[in-house]
Amino acid sequence: MGDSRFKVASLPLHKNRGSAALALALFLCAGSLQATLVPRMSLEEVVDASESIVQGTVVRSWSAWDEGRKYIWTHYEIQVADRLKGNLPGTMVVSEPGGAVGETELQIAGTPQYEVGEEIVLFAERTPLGYLRTCGWGQGKFQVTRAPLNGKVTVRTAAKGIQLVERPAAGPTKPQGTPLGEMNGLELEQFKTRVRELVGQRGSLPAR
User: Could you give the percent of the chain with pLDDT greater than 90?
Assistant: First the structure.
């Protein structure tokens, strides 16, 4: 039997939601070098584009074909500790394209991955297939770190394997959003307070 493991070079898995959730699925594959070009999102844009925002811990993962048996997806179950946006039960599932089923493996550059036991703050948007997936190709994943010495709990962006690109400004007076990198090292409770404030200011429904 031949090798059925393969890589995907282009895969449009997001639906457009205006400039706030524009997805550019352009993959650059040259030998072992892979990068995904993704429009840079601000904290405000990530909040707007997300249907659900939660703090939680990854408890299990599995891979399976989608219903049309077109792509393999890896699904991660999250035990929800705190809900910042949306009305989710005690657990939720975030799904990302790629993974292995039997002898078939689908690899997509820049797809966010999760580890069992990992504590995160997750911004998740709804895909046309009905899955929740990480907003902005990993820009909506923040790792929670607990310092062993002083017990300080902080967050840090966790996007990997993507190259962020700037979108053209809509006009000379377009307001600048908050860069996600500014959240790095912020205490968890301060970060969640900031997110809740934005959710309250900007409404409970994702932008379309």
Answer: 63
Domain extent at residue 129:
5-202
Tell me: the pLDDT tens digits for 8-36? 433 444 443 333 333 334 333 333 345 78
In this structure, what CATH number is given to the domain that contains residue 119?
2.40.50.120
Which pTM was predicted? 0.81
Torsion of CA 70, 71, 77, 83, to 10 degrees: -90
Rg of the Cα atoms in the chain: 17
**In whole angstroms, what separates CA 67 from the centre of its chain?**
22
Is residue 207, in this structure, part of any structural domain at all?
no
Rounded to whole angstroms, the Cα distance separating 119 from 192 reads 14
Q: Dig out the tokens for 71 from the structure.
A: 């792509």
In angstroms, the CA 41 to CA 165 distance is 9
Strand pairing partners for 78? Answer: 58, 92
Domain annotation covers residue 74: yes
Q: Residue 56 and residue 135: Cα distance in Å, rounded? A: 16
Domains in the chain: how many in total?
Answer: 1
Question: Is the CB of residue 96 less than 8 Å from the CB of residue 113?
Answer: yes
Q: Which of 194, 179, 67, 77 is nearest to 130 (CA)?
A: 67
Indicate the pairing of strand 5-7 with strand 104-107. Answer: parallel
Q: Report the C-alpha gap between 15 and 125 in whole angstroms.
A: 10
Q: For residue 208, is it within any domain?
A: no
